[in-house]
Design brief:
Length: about 280
């Protein structure tokens, strides 16, 4: 898989993670398909236009190869020619987002339960999924607009901070966890989750034993996250359900009530999702 890293002078360059158990690419830089798809990682809030020169620098390839990658992505609709020189995010992304909103199995089974729970309790609820080393909000039911969270649909957030992420992280497979340790050791250490595999694994096992995880101000100061994992069939973690609460409202008995509410809703979602994802 590819990602983005930064050079000492601040330039963004592509990074293709290399797992030893995967087939080796001839040049050590990942397959052409991996590099082409990694162009999507060049887009962020600060950079919405990518040129062939950007791609050539990021992947240390020729401009002809960069143009070929961009033309292929544009042909699929994932990119489009920008009003400026270069390419921007394409309309196919919008089409796929609509399909996710309407037909994503996780959102589909969770939406009604979240709406019911939020309406009955006044809790702000968020459903999150994940990919690679990122957690992402998929759906919210927000009863209290006075509480503002940094999470929003489509915004990637770190895998190692907050109840949203930790509820997922603790239930990944050991293989996934070890790969994260190999690739993101500094971030794991900075998050206080351990400075090596043994310490990291011990912390994850501790989190795993907690049905509902509570974190304080790890994402937004003054806010408490109360999160539980959501499982598909065979106890595969599919995401997390989290209540975002002001610190003053998450004390004593009130916090225990919130934990019980989130845990119950997450189990209901898991039961429905497991039933839908089990082969008939």
């Amino acid at each position: 898989m590819a990602g983005i890293t930064y050079t000492d002078d601040g330039r963004r360059v592509a990074r293709v993670a290399q797992d030893k158990d995967k087939t080796e690419a001839g040049d050590g830089g990942g397959s052409s398909l991996e590099r082409m798809l990694a162009i999507l990682d060049l887009f962020d809030d600060d950079s919405m236009v990518v040129t062939a020169d950007d791609v050539a620098r990021a992947f240390d390839c020729s401009r002809a190869t960069a143009y070929r990658y961009l033309k292929c992505l544009a042909g699929s609709g994932l990119l489009s020619a920008s009003y400026q020189e270069g390419y921007g995010v394409g309309p196919r992304i919008v089409e796929l987002d609509r399909l996710l909103r309407l037909h994503d199995p996780l959102v589909g089974v969770a939406r009604a339960i979240m709406h019911e729970t939020s309406g009955a309790t006044g809790l702000n609820l968020m459903l999150c999924g994940f990919y690679r080393d990122k957690v992402m909000c998929l759906h919210t039911e927000w009863s209290n607009p006075a509480v503002h969270s940094s999470y929003e649909r489509g915004r990637p957030m770190p895998m190692f901070l907050g109840a949203t992420a930790k509820a997922i992280l603790a239930h990944l497979t050991p293989y996934q966890q070890r790969n994260l340790m190999l690739r993101k050791g500094d971030e794991i250490r900075d998050a206080g989750l351990g400075d090596g595999w043994d310490a990291f694994r011990a912390n994850l096992l501790r989190l795993r034993r907690e049905e509902v995880i509570v974190t304080y101000g790890e994402i937004d100061p003054g806010l408490v996250g109360v999160g539980a994992p959501v499982f598909a069939s065979e106890r595969r973690v599919a995401g997390s359900l989290v209540a975002i609460v002001a610190g003053d409202d998450a004390q004593g008995a009130a916090l225990q009530t919130i934990r019980a509410t989130v845990g119950t809703a997450a189990r209901r979602i898991s039961d429905l999702l497991s039933a839908e994802s089990t082969p008939k």
